[in-house]
């Protein structure tokens, strides 16, 4: 085993952001304009019309993924999954269809998901016929997914990437539920879910502009955690280091590597106050998931009938900004799909000075923290992080080489006063999200 101590600022991705293809604002605009051209994309609109409605929009999205796949030698497998749902917004039932593009990695069972919802609506959620452009909500997220596929299809990854356009978000997050259930049924090991919903505007109706940041929402205590895990998280102080919150921190750290990019406002709640999105069913299923949304919302352009001053139209969007949000998604997907999975379990204990065989710890001197973890398939080493217990982000780390290494001692770091965690490293230096030390395995 070989360890090397470095300050966190010395970290760098294996491939710099400057060397990567950047998203195209022009392509994103063209895709949003095409989505708007379908008139309405209400989930209960005509699914069989060739030019108007949700069905035409879904078929177009799949055709665009097919074009991308053809350009990369059929590297993306496209399909549609569907299920009939009935609720108060679909009292007669609606066939919800999600469009998927699956880019298999070396490990076809471990996936990272990027998604947006393709459906739209006006003021009355039951109005299935009026024009509902849905340019920003959520043509922006749908176009982002297509652009991410165009860029990442040119590369090879360890994990599988799933590009998804979901239906039924406006009818109660139905497409998100369908895909989360599909992930369970197929036995996917989901490393991350990036939900993009309303990611393409910078100006509010009153003229206020926020163009320098994007919000990323994440849960603390997991919605799917049994009470035993919740109590263990409380006892270890890891409310701010749950899998989804660690994913948000990863997004934030990746964003800092992108020249002329955006700041990530990592909001410590699952979604906007009192609201939800398609990542919610993934959280309820126990998967790490976050939601991207603009720095400032234009409520006059959300869920509005078209009339002077109101409506979710293309002219209210900022496509260079959308390209920057797309760049953060692409860079995060690249990192997580290149890296191994995160360690399943990390445990902590005080490290003591050596003693005589059979001697108890009583009376011996604590010299640091003993960190232990389960080895990860595909890892060539591990990165052990720590921070003072009153800090939000990791401040120091030590790299430990060896694929089968399962523990190390961090000298001078007292468990009582510090938080510790471990990320797995790949052969190319890419790292997983961090698994917090001191809690039981996720269930």
Structure description:
Helix 1 (25-36) packs across helix 3 and helix 6 (243-255) packs across helix 8 (319-338). The radius of gyration is 23 Å and the shape is elongated. Mean pLDDT is 92; it is low at 1-18. The protein has an eight-stranded mixed beta sheet with strand order 2-3-5-4-6-9-7-8, sandwiched between helices. It has a five-stranded antiparallel beta sheet with strand order 1-13-12-15-16, with no helix packed on it. A three-stranded antiparallel beta sheet has the order 10-11-14, with no helix packed on it. The chain has eight helices and 16 strands. The longest helix has 20 residues, at 319-338. It is of the alpha+beta class and 443 residues long.
Major beta sheet, strand line-up? 2-3-5-4-6-9-7-8
DSSP, total strands:
16
Uncertain runs are 1-18
Q: List the helices and strands in order.
A: EHHEEEHEHEEHHEHEHEEEEEEE
Count of individual helical segments: 8
Secondary structure category: alpha+beta
N-to-C span: 31 Å
Strand % is 25-35%
Mean residue pLDDT: 92
Question: Can you summarize the main beta sheet?
Answer: 8 strands, mixed
Give the quaternary arrangement of the chains.
single chain
Percentage of residues assigned to helices: 10-25%
Instruction: Sum up the overall morphology in one term.
Output: elongated
Gyration radius (Cα, Å) is 23 Å
């Amino acid at each position: 085993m070989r360890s090397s101590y470095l300050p966190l600022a010395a970290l760098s991705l294996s491939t710099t952001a400057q060397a990567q293809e950047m998203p195209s604002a022009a392509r994103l605009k063209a895709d949003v304009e095409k989505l708007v051209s379908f008139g309405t994309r209400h989930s209960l609109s005509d699914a069989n019309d060739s030019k108007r409605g949700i069905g035409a929009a879904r078929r177009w999205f799949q055709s665009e993924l097919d074009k991308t796949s053809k350009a990369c030698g059929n590297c993306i497998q496209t399909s549609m999954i569907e299920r009939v749902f009935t609720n108060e917004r679909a009292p007669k039932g609606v066939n919800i269809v999600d469009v998927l593009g699956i880019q298999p990695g070396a490990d076809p069972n471990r996936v990272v998901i990027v998604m947006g919802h393709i459906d739209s609506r006006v003021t009355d959620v039951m109005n299935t016929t009026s024009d509902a452009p849905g340019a920003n909500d959520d043509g922006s997220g749908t176009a982002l997914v297509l652009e991410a596929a165009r860029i990442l299809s040119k590369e090879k990854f360890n994990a599988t990437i799933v590009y998804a356009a979901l239906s039924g978000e406006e009818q109660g997050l139905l497409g998100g539920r369908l895909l989360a259930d599909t992930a369970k049924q197929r036995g996917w090991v989901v490393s991350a879910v990036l939900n993009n919903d309303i990611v393409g505007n910078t100006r509010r109706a009153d003229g206020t502009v926020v163009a320098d940041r994007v919000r990323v929402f994440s849960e603390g205590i997991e919605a799917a955690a049994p009470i035993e895990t919740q109590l263990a998280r409380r006892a270890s102080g890891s409310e701010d280091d749950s899998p989804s919150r660690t994913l948000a921190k990863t997004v934030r750290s990746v964003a800092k590597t992108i020249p002329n990019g955006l700041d990530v406002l990592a909001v410590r709640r699952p979604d906007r106050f009192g609201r939800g999105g398609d990542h919610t069913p993934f959280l309820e299923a126990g998967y790490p998931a976050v939601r991207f949304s603009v720095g400032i919302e234009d409520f006059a352009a959300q869920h509005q009938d078209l009339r002077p001053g109101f409506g979710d139209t293309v002219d209210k969007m900022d496509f260079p900004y959308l390209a920057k949000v797309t760049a953060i998604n692409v860079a995060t997907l690249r990192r997580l799909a290149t890296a191994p999975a995160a360690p399943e379990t990390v445990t902590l204990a005080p490290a003591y000075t050596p003693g005589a065989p059979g001697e108890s710890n009583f009376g011996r001197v604590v010299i640091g923290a003993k960190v232990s973890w389960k080895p990860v398939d595909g890892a060539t080493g591990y990165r052990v992080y720590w921070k003072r217990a009153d800090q939000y982000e990791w401040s120091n780390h030590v790299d430990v080489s060896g694929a089968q290494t399962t523990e190390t001692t961090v000298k001078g770091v007292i468990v009582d006063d510090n938080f510790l965690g471990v990320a797995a490293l790949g052969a190319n230096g890419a790292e997983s999200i961090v698994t917090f030390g001191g809690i039981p395995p996720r269930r």
